[in-house]
Specification:
The chain is an alpha/beta fold and 806 residues long. The chain contains 22 helices and 24 strands. The two termini are 92 Å apart.
């Protein structure tokens, strides 16, 4: 069963702070429904919504021009209360007056604005857009009904043809009455019967002010008298019938206006469900954006819940929102609270000086938990909290004369109630545990209570001045001592929490700061036992040393951060220099290679111009390509940073079948055999070579080998065939001579690249056409060393053996 000490922790006052940002009655009602919950999924949804609202509010506050997808500020002020209107619509036969219809339209118009503003930002704020999507499109209804009801609530003349006509008739009738009365005024202006020369309206009829003593001289009907009785308001008989006609017109106008209001009410009643939904969404959105404004003003963060099996309290720079509000009005700031509890440590004992902030620390933690479990942002820079089933607090003096309870009795009654209900998923907050009784007995009782909470598995934060709990905290596993700091120089508390050691109460020092007489202070110190004085001195010494250690740690972290920044800057500068050097070197190399390539190509073309020199030209081209490769590899090695070259290569794991890269060989290879003596046999492309294991610079993954260098546009690479995958003979039987010659030429190129020394070409006997065409090609081919008919065992004169040049 969940239980939360919301009243003791003043959670309602926090909701009142949030209420400053809510102005509508519906929003206030939605805010009143907020309370702590244990439903993890619902809370995480609520916090995710709040996170989006915070981001949206920040976006809408930025100066930006109107465009699609722009976050616009939503307005919730002056929203009418929908409940009375919806209650009337729920009663069949009840007709809304013009003002009520106008109020309903204002609500729907604001709902349409929210719907349009949020749905257009659905990509960045999907949760808000999903809420807005629940609002129906009321724009046609608002536009139509808005034309029929004036801002004053009066039914517009153009609401119907009949209403427009009857109102024109009423205007004509009123002019006739006015003209009749003006004639009467002119006729009796000088005979002394008129009190004044103006036309008045009494009982919805036009009348004239007549002197009371002259009433018999006027033939008409008296409708009213002035407060003094000196003036009578008389309707002359000549205008009675005209007024009667006007009254009849008014009745017709009223019936037609009522009919129109009835019709408009019916249309709103038909949409009552959608109107209720829109009003609920607007109320929720107002609360949501109130959370966002509260978060911005109080520097809040969206809290996270720790996993169920690993509960932790992690608060960074947490502040009590009520205290922050008070101090802000005084242009002051709250000293933030930072603490961590979890794992085996679930109990924190806070000691230290009076007025040092112990109680505020307890309330801050409790309020942060209640706010998180109510879907509210938490005033902290970071918050990770368990999802507590119970938040149980004993804070303050519960003395009751009416119930005959002393401070100690009330305190014990509350502690007893907590002890009987506490469970492992509870947060217990105990202020001055064991107080209001003998210190020795109170200390023993406090230790017993704290140990009970610890064994129950609850997270417990307790403040104390007693020695026994401090010793318990220092000697018990899972219990952590903490102290609110005290400045010995100024005799002032600093309100900051430090964990790891208990704190001194500093009661005498504070009393001295408050102006207690010196002689009284001397007597108080003399009355202290030597043990108490030694303990106080020890605690103050520990606090001083912890403060010095903390200062040293802060200084070390600052120096380390500065050193890391300097190293990063130096590394970036070095990388830039090396990159510039490599780029310049590559540029110069490419220029030289281009010049070399042009000259080599010209030389090869000159050599190839004569047919007998084709073989030499082919060898020259191969030599040029090899030379260019070697030049590039040398340039790559030269371009490597010195630091990179000196890195010691780790021992490589070589085994048969792995892919490797050899020093001086550009193409990756595969280990075929380990020959012993530190020698390996590697196949790289069409090359098979033996190399020392030390020349293996890298073992490559089995996935497709990465491209070693990006090729220029229009350049493609075709790898050489391997001997194992290429047949050593070519069968031309059945092919035409031209087709066969082209195929033999391609076959010889592949065989040469695969380092074959001898191949067989099968052309058959037939009429000798194929044989002659092949012989003519082989006779002048630059790759052919010699060729001759095959032996009988290899096909005789039906095949030709070709030996390739080295």
């Amino acid at each position: 069963m969940s239980s939360f000490s919301s009243g003791i922790l003043e959670f309602d006052a926090v909701l009142a702070l949030l209420g400053r940002y809510i102005s509508s009655p519906a929003g206030e009602a939605a805010l009143a429904r907020i309370s702590p919950s244990t439903e993890r999924a619902a809370l995480e949804e609520a916090l995710a919504d709040a996170a989006e609202a915070i981001e949206y509010t920040g976006e809408s506050a930025k100066p930006q021009g109107p465009s699609r997808g722009t976050a616009v500020r939503l307005r919730f002020e002056n929203l009418p209360d929908p409940e009375p209107l919806l209650a009337k619509l729920a009663i069949v036969g009840v007709v809304l007056d013009g003002g009520e219809i106008r109020s309903t339209l204002a609500l729907l118009d604001r709902a349409c604005d929210a719907r349009a503003g949020l749905t257009q930002t659905a990509v960045r704020f999907p949760r808000l857009a999903a809420r807005a999507g629940r609002i129906a499109d009321f724009r046609p209804l608002v536009n139509d009904l808005g034309l029929k009801i004036e801002p004053s609530g009066r039914v517009a003349d153009n609401a119907s043809v009949a209403l427009s006509r009857v109102r024109r008739d009423m205007e004509r009738q009123q002019r006739q009455i006015q003209e009749s009365l003006e004639r009467f005024l002119r006729a009796h202006r000088d005979d002394g019967i008129l009190q004044d020369e103006f036309v008045a309206i009494r009982n919805e009829r036009f009348v004239l002010p007549v002197v009371a003593g002259q009433k018999r001289r006027v033939d008409g009907i008296i409708h009213a008298a002035s407060g003094t009785g000196h003036t009578l308001f008389v309707e002359p008989m000549e205008t009675v019938e005209l007024n009667n006609d006007l009254v009849r017109l008014r009745e017709r106008e009223h019936r037609e206006a009522y009919r129109i209001l009835e019709e408009l009410t019916g249309r709103l009643r038909a949409a009552a469900h959608e109107i209720r939904e829109a009003a609920a969404v607007l109320a929720d959105l107002e609360v949501l954006f109130a959370k966002a404004r509260f978060a911005a003003e109080f520097e809040c963060v969206i809290p996270h819940f720790s996993p169920p099996g690993e509960p932790r309290i992690e608060l960074r720079d947490a502040r009590h929102p009520l205290l922050a509000d008070v101090l802000r009005r005084q242009a002051k700031k709250v000293v933030p609270l930072t603490l961590e509890l979890g794992g085996g440590q679930r109990t924190l004992l806070i000691s230290g000086p009076n007025t040092g902030g112990k109680t505020v620390a307890l309330k801050t933690v409790g309020l942060c938990c209640l706010m998180a479990q109510s879907g509210l942002p938490v005033p902290a820079s970071e918050a990770r909290l368990p999802l507590f089933e119970q938040v149980l607090a004993d804070i303050g003096d519960h003395q009751s004369l009416e119930a005959s309870l002393s401070s100690f009795s009330a305190h014990m009654a509350r502690v007893k109630e907590i002890a009987e209900t506490v469970g492992p998923e509870a947060l217990v907050l105990l202020d001055e545990v064991g107080r209001a009784t003998d210190p020795e007995e109170g200390g023993a009782l406090a230790v017993a209570v704290l140990d009970w909470m610890r064994r129950a598995g609850a997270f417990t934060l307790a403040s104390t001045h007693l020695v026994a709990p401090k010793i318990y905290g220092a000697t018990t596993e899972g219990v952590l001592n903490g102290a609110m700091s005290f400045d010995e120089a100024t005799l002032m508390p600093t309100y900051s929490l430090r964990t790891g050691t208990p704190g001194a109460s500093a009661g005498l020092a504070i009393a001295q700061r408050l102006g207690m007489p010196a002689i009284l202070m001397e007597r108080a110190r003399g009355a202290m036992s030597e043990q108490q004085r030694d303990l106080e001195r020890l605690l103050r010494l520990l606090e001083a040393r912890i403060e010095a250690a903390a200062a040293a740690e802060r200084d070390w972290k600052a120096r380390r951060a500065e050193l890391d920044r300097e190293q990063e800057q130096a590394a970036e500068a070095l990388a830039k220099r090396e990159a510039a050097r490599a780029a310049e070197l590559a540029k110069r190399t490419e220029a030289l290679l281009q010049s070399f390539d042009e000259r080599a190509r010209e030389a090869i073309e000159r050599i190839a111009d004569t047919s007998p020199q084709k073989k030499a030209a082919w060898h020259a081209a191969r030599h040029v390509a090899q030379t260019k490769r070697e030049i590039r590899e040398e340039v790559d090695r030269a371009a490597k940073p010195a630091a990179q070259e000196t890195v010691e290569t780790p021992a490589l794991e070589l085994r048969e079948g792995v892919r490797v890269r050899l020093r001086g060989v550009r193409e990756p290879g595969r280990v075929r055999r380990l020959l012993g003596g530190g020698v390996v046999e590697v196949e790289a492309g069409f090359l098979k070579l033996q190399a020392p294991a030390a020349d293996v610079v890298e073992v490559l993954p089995e996935s497709a080998a990465p491209a070693s260098r990006a090729l220029g546009r229009g350049i493609s690479v075709r790898t050489a065939p391997r001997e194992s995958g290429l047949s050593q003979e070519l069968n031309l039987i059945g092919k035409r001579a031209e087709e066969a010659v082209a195929e033999v030429d391609r076959f010889l190129d592949s065989a040469a690249l695969a380092s074959m020394m001898r191949v067989r070409i099968i052309h058959g006997h037939g009429m000798g056409v194929l044989k002659k065409a092949v012989a003519d090609l082989l006779a002048g081919h630059p790759l052919v060393e010699k060729f001759y008919p095959a032996g009988q065992e290899e096909g005789g004169s039906g095949a030709t053996i070709v030996e390739l040049a080295e």
